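Q: A reviewer asked whether we had any structural model of the full assembly, not just the individual parts. We don't, so I'm hoping you can provide one. Inputs are below.
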Amino acid sequence: MKRTLITLVTLALLLSTLACERRGGGGGGGDDTGPIKVGIYGDLSGQTSSFGQSTKNGAVMAIDEINAAGGINGRKVEYVMEDDQGQPAQAATVVTKLINQDRVHAVLGEVASTNSLAAAPKAQEAKVPMITPSSTNPKVTQVGDYIFRVCFTDDFQGAVAAKFASNTLKAKKAAILGDFNSDYSKGMSQYFVQEFTAAGGQIVERQTYTQTDADFKGQLTAIRAAAPDVIFVPGYYGQVGVIAKQAKELGITAPLLGGDGWDAPQLWDLGGAALNGAYMVNHYSVDDPSPAVQKFVAAYKAKYGGTAPDAIAALGYDAMNVLADAIRRAGTTESAKLRDAIAQTKNFAGVTGAISINESRDAVKPAVVFELRDRKFVYKETIQPPGAPATAAASPGASPAAPASSPAVMPSNTAAGAEGGAAGSSANANAAGASGGAAGNTNR
Amino acid sequence: MDTFVQQLINGLTVGSIYALIALGYTMVYGILRLINFAHGDVYMIGAFAGFFLAHGLGFAAEPSVVGLGVTLVGSMAVAAVIGMAIERFAYRPVRKYARMTTLITAIGVSLLIENLGVVIFGNAPRAFPGLMENQTYPLFGNAAISKTQLLIFGVSVALMLLLQWIIYHTKVGTAMRAVSFNLNSAKLMGINTDAIIVFTFALGSALAAAGGVLTAQYNPTIYPLMGIITGLKAFVAAVLGGIGNIPGAVLGGLLIGAAETLVVGYGQVVGIPSTYRDAVAFAILILVLLFRPAGLLGTTVQEKV
Amino acid sequence: MPSFAKRAAAAAALVVAIVVANAMLSEEGLFGFGVPRYWAHVLMLAGVNVILAVSLNLINGFTGQFSIGHAGFMAIGAYSSAYLTVYHAQAWERSLGGAVGETAAGVVVFLLAILVGAVVSGLAGLVVGVPSLRLRGDYLAIVTLGFAEIIRIVILNMDVVGGATGFTVPGETNFLWVGSFAVITILVVHNIVRSDTGRALISIREDELAAEAMGINSTRYKVLSFVIGSMFAGIAGALFGHYTKFLSTNDFTFLRSFEIIIMIVLGGMGSITGSVLGAVVITILPEFLRQLPAVGGYNLADLRLVIYSALLILIMLTRPQGVLGEREFGFNWLRRAQKRPEGDEAVGAGGGVPIDERPARTVANEAGGDAAGGGEKR
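A: Here is a predicted structure for the entire assembly that you could use as a starting point for your response.
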């Protein structure tokens, strides 16, 4: 009898926490007074924790700036940050919690496309706008009309890598070493192959790995045997560093090429000198001399103890500001109106370039290619999204105007001169690319 | 041909690590008939202990053989202590209970260590410092062997020989063999079985820790959950070789390592993508248990009623 | 036997409860009163976990086999039913819809998908069970774990169901489905346990060799319980997939299997109500933890897994039979049906002495292999 009693009491206690909750339907808060609540979710403690941390830093910095300037329409911005540990199921769960328990007006996140894909349906269903700062797989915004992104998509990024490989590196044969579990990696590989073979190249070897693999030498040895001119590694920094190291140990001399998944300080810790001579595609350059970018970099460094903002942080910052701008324009946080306002974002001046949301709810922006050397990302060139129209006015940076017609590849310059010149023209081309993007972008 | 040799070298390197860990599994099973699920996590603890030692004692900044040696021995010591603690506080109280109870306890301990690790260290991967200058020595054609690989082979062989000596040429070793043969009889012979069990755990844990530090030289990424898959594969290796059988554990480890790497390297040819790598170990396990449960070097025991 | 009237009344009450619960959990609520969506989510998960726990208990608790790969069967059920609903359901619904009306067609198709999930999982259980159940406890555990991992990796490699990307699945589950299947699972397992088959299973758990000596084909019964258990796991998986609307193999790792294990260990491995209790507690626990203030800078919910494992060890050390041991807890008629004549009290766990601690087996310790005797040569 006593045991029964204990059981009943425990159960009752636990269930009482259930009853104590408010009743009524879910969804974002409806009224237009009171603080604006933004939910941010990301990987703070898992395998890709640098991403979550950077996103948070960027977004929070934007929020602090907004609040210091008096808030949006007089309302302060509050945020709730949730850790999804890099797991898709967790991502879905925490977004559900943010929407239903914290009643956020909008959600920012995630970086890894697989996690965004898991969480987006929850936001879409609850009609809460979600802006992903850095998920590049095209499928993410296809989930529904409440899902947006402020970065480019992998069909573009993969193609950029391929163009760089064939045009600049003059590679004829490429090998691919992809992350099997990642949508991002799979999408990138797919688009790279498309573009590279269209440019006359040949894929000589395809290998994959999982994030828990301790040893990549099996895959790398097979790749080595195929003697590629370049190895495309569209994965995340946690594995790429080690891959570079082990590749060097096997005597592989072909350069590695990758995407924005590489962007984290830990990349250098894990890869060290083996990363020298590798190339990566990214969203923005921290050395971009444009005043807006440098102001952002300086402010970020001041706020976060001297750390320079990586692309993920910059995108987090931009995403939050795009959201704020949309709220300002809509004059309300009511979900449908907010969604429409976000969808109408045009030429928003972000630190990662001009952001315009097109009809697929993606942003059309140029990509930057870097060479990795001695723990630094050395600028190589900018590549425009397709459909960039005739030039807009030259920017104060004074540089050769971007050639109009087909996807332009800026000639790569030597290191020092390149940063100034090309960055200036990239700002120039941003405006061109953005306005052309809305009309011409059909990339999925 | 040179690619095959290279893959073989890669595989044997990984296999040596599996062998080191498998030894721990096999010794504990031989004595207690218990699958120490937490053993894989001791391997992880060894790697982390090495990480903190290397950073704390300043070896990370300047790679050196001394640094490597001290880190290795230090982490082995830490792991031995933890192994003994696990035995004392988690396994000994449930030793007299039903088999399932001890098994569940073992799983519980494993999960506890893993998740404590996640809470304390965070699941973000850390970079284990390289404690030795790496160099690649070409063999023939494209095949090459790196200094790290040689290190792993060398240390593993040395440790295994040490273990062999302990078990066959010392009193303690004889006692261990006696206990694994028949615990109660050993007790009757005056052997302090509890002490021997503790010693076995310590020994096994030390070997696993060595495996952890060596792996970290090869692939510097360490994180709290790194012991799960590796531990399972090492267990499969122990079973493959014949659980309870020491040379069997070594053989099993090398075989699993080689099989895995060869599947990754050549699997494409037969349509097996390299992501089936982990499945290889489990497939081998199932085949072994179906067709030769005693393992390659084990002997079948008749069950008396 | 309890009277027909009593049983009918209980059944009616259950049906009403499920319907009411379903209404309250839905968008509109019942007369405007709803349960907050987040807690509705928890309840749904609890229902799924009940099915998982009870089905695993059949294998682990009543038959005494240590299977720790239950998540694999759940995955099979989830993915196979999802395959149907994603690729074929619309075609079928359209053709059926003409005949029986849209809602009915939807229900039939979903039911079909769930059943397919169950059957495929059951088959998998057969494939896994037949070779493995010859093995002893520890080995069986590892083999089931291995099979679950292989299943997971194979599914991961199948692009037709999304592969690593994950699989988006239409949402069909509501509490009507989950509640009904939970009740069905409990009833089925309960009936099995009380039948001759159940006695055979229990005898195998108690002493397999003796059972064999009594003429019970232990392999056959073990496989039977394994298949039934995996079938229900498949059903749970199907319901789960169509509720979360997104399937990723990360949901079906051995962590999931361990969660189910701790549910049945907590509740008591020989007790159905214990499994229900364990399932509910473990599902609610993380949410409960989230409500508590943070301790020492750590949000308790993040420590969830540490707490689970510590709890598991603690239970093993202090009360291995779990909260309810092998007893059931329920309405009087249930208990009366369970009651055995006086002399059997010591045989059941009712005596308060955990089965594991009974001094009867010292020398040989437990059936088949032990630390004490029958050593293997090095």
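A: Points you may want to mention in the reply: Chain A has three domains: 36-152+300-355, 155-282, 381-440. The first helix of chain A runs from residue 2 to 19.
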